[in-house]
What does this fold into?
Amino acid sequence: MQVVHNELIELDECRVACSEFIIPLEDKTYFQILFATSVNGRALLGSFHFESEEVLVWRPLAHALIRTIRVEQNVNMT
It folds into this structure.
């Protein structure tokens, strides 16, 4: 696995850490975007993964989706 990019995205409600990886497997190479933030003191993690040959389509879309995250703090999550 190779790390290709790390970024801290500043949104209105929160900061989102984002990392990108290239993952070579036997028959194909995959691209993964992992993101994380904090909600009410708990970790919120998400990821997108796709074949690396589709990176020109999925990378911008994944980053656009990450930038739509809206976090409401202090919401009862029981």
About this structure: The mean pLDDT is 91. The helical segments are 55-66. Residues 5 and 20 are 5 Å apart (CA to CA). The chain has one helix and four strands.
